[in-house]
Specification:
With about 325 residues, the protein is α/β, with parallel strands linked by helices. The chain contains 13 helices and 14 strands. The structure holds ligand FO1.
Length: about 325
């Protein structure tokens, strides 16, 4: 067994725990597999929101209020774009824009998304390995009562208003798990952590990649998820609304049900402590702690608690 910890992460919530993990353990032993289902092309730029949420969090550049993009941002580009009638539904800050322009330039030069992400990680002084779940395109579409929508259109343009009836991850069946992630899972990591991201649109694109579930289950390492739902509410984003529209139990139980058969343990908040016996009924070991991450200390605290729980969990 190695000291490696593999974390599967989406955007905002996942990035918070990843930052905590990078402080709670040796950062270079942490490998983050990022969801790329949110990625899309906009104004000729390849936008990778969940990768950037993780990069900015680890580089201490993120805007903790917005949860995406960079802090100390200016919006001159957006003002000029709007004044010329350009699409202003998707906000690109002036500093954030540099990331998208540089990434798009590197991709056009023939680099893979993982090579680009490694280059950005190094330039941002990040020791943790951050990688896309796959170098092959996977595009999340949300099926709604108003038709199928690309994720960013649903999430940003429509502000998650349409009623979700299902999800498609176009290209997933042909996509290959990024090789370094697949290798890390095969050389016996110490733990595999599913970060508190939206199970449907941020984690399922990763879990649904061909051979990913079998690779995860073949690993001897405990698989522990951190619930993104606290007291029946998602801390950020549309997870609770989606669970409700899909007829799922909008609670930690709904999360346990979603991951049943894959995870060995589930970390969830003290507000939901009374659900622990029900979590055990799913064959999942419960771990109750404070999961609200309001600052760096609480991010580190949850990361430490999750890592020590991983040591206790019986595979
Ligand atoms: N989310 C919004 O709600 N509004 C935006 O204008 C917006 C712009 C944006 C630009 C770059 C980026 O990396 C993320 C951005 N996000 C925005 C968040 C994005 O929709 C992510 O997919 C969510 O954080 C969910 O993962």
């Amino acid at each position: 067994m190695t000291e490696t910890v593999v974390a599967l992460s989406g955007g905002v919530g996942g990035a918070k725990l990843v930052l905590g993990l990078s402080h709670a353990m040796r950062a270079s032993d942490l490998i983050v597999a990022c969801n790329t289902g949110d990625d899309f092309d906009h104004l000729g730029l390849r936008i990778c929101p969940d990768i950037d949420s993780v990069l900015y969090a680890l580089a201490n550049l993120s805007d903790s209020v917005r949860g995406w993009g960079r802090r100390d941002e200016s919006w001159v580009f957006m003002e000029a774009l709007a004044s010329m009638g350009g699409p202003d539904w998707f906000n690109l800050g002036d500093r954030d824009l540099a990331t998208h322009v540089l990434r798009s330039h590197m991709l056009r030069s023939g680099m893979s998304l993982s090579e680009v992400t490694r280059a950005l990680t190094q330039r941002l002084g990040i020791e943790t390995t951050v990688l896309p779940m796959s170098n092959d395109p996977v595009a999340t579409f949300v099926d709604t009562t108003e038709g199928a929508m690309a994720f960013q259109h649903y999430f940003v343009k429509e502000k998650c208003a349409p009623q979700a009836t299902g999800f498609e991850f176009r290209g997933q069946e042909a996509a290959r798990v990024q090789t370094d992630i697949a290798d890390a899972l095969r050389v016996e990591p110490k733990a595999i952590i599913i970060a508190p991201s939206n199970p449907f649109v941020s984690v399922d694109p990763i879990l649904g990649l061909p051979h990913m579930r079998t690779t995860l289950k073949a690993a001897k390492a405990p698989i522990v998820a951190v619930s993104p739902i606290v007291g029946g509410q998602a801390l950020k984003g549309p997870a609770a609304k989606m669970m409700q529209e899909l007829g799922r139990d909008v609670s930690v139980l709904g999360v346990a049900q979603h991951y049943q058969g894959l995870i060995d343990g589930l970390v969830f908040d003290t507000q939901d402590a009374h659900l622990a016996p029900r979590i055990s009924d799913f064959g999942i070991q419960p771990f109750v702690t404070d999961t609200i991450m309001t600052d760096l200390n609480s991010r580190i605290g949850l990361a430490k608690a999750t890592l020590s729980f991983c040591d206790e969990v019986q595979k």
